[in-house]
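cron nightly-structures :: item 1 of 1
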Amino acid sequence: MKGATTMSAKKWTILFVCLILFCLLFIAGTNFFVDPYGYFGAQNGENYTMDENDYLREQKAQHIRQHADEYDAYLVGGSKAGGIRSEKLSELDGYRYYNCWLLSGNFEDYYEYSKFIIETAHPKKLLLHISTSEIAQFDREAKGDIYEIPAVISGKSKTAETFKYLFKNLSTSYETLTDTEPRYPVTQSGERNLSKYYGFYKEHLDAQEYYNHLMKDMVDAYLPRLTSGTKDKADLVNSNLDYLKQIKKLCEKNDVEFQVFLGTLFVGEIVGYEGNSFYNWLTQMVEITGGLWCFNNFNDLIYNPFNYYNARHYYYEMGDLMIDRMSGKETGHDDFGIYLTNDNIAEELTRRRRETDKLRDYYKETGTVPISAYEDENNITKDSIYWREG
């Protein structure tokens, strides 16, 4: 009797172990084949069906690792930089560019990717796009898995990372299988796919309607800072500057050209950052780099909402215009962007304070910021090839 009981217990133990193994294999198999984060599809560096909801940090790292011989130079930056076309970047210097923009990028990311690119791809040039939002938050990894620096770059265990994605909660795979929303994959050369925004644009040509739908909520969160002031960001400023110095040192050590520029901001986002922390940050970046283009400046284009697809991001046209300005081409928009040096930074900051005072008065009177219409001459997107193709 005792022997039969022991045999029965062994059978139940074996059955239980088999059941556990089956469940683990089912979870791993489902996550591998559904691939809700795009992690496994990214390993060959050629998965161009992924969009910004996938683990693009991994895809971009693998693409760079396996296609380094196809590029001479790399653009590194946050999500704003996704609006710059790699083909257009070649007009700067004739180099073949890859756009390595990162969703919610920060200076730690920029350093890690710059280091990886220099050691892996041995580029001729590194172009760093600064979004200004880096001054608001340093560590983005807490936002979720797709914001983490991948093991291929960080040097952490690739095996552990693979197991993490194999055994993710199946709810994410289920959501992927049942998701009917259209996807907007990034391009092979790295830039962001903006077709959904151009599609919305074509149906909404009233400035106030366009602004209310795409921008108002974001801008409303920034506006009170016009009267309450911006918070001191000294710690973030120092962290950012430390990484900027390290990136520059890496480039100098490896004989890599290094150029920095600040991308354009809609007026509704500009008001969220104007203050002493930003001015200090900008002044020191100019000092470290020796000079940089700043398209986050007060000019006529920033007041037209149709130049931006939401309060924080610009269309391809604005990206093209920045490249034209940096290339020295005649654009008809001489006030768009300023090349800052140690000699003119103080004068520019005085001008910024003056323009911010005007916006503060406007806000106190109206409760909002001024915007211009679709027909306005400073809407550079209305006759765009991208608008027509979107």
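cron nightly-structures :: done
The mean pLDDT is 92.
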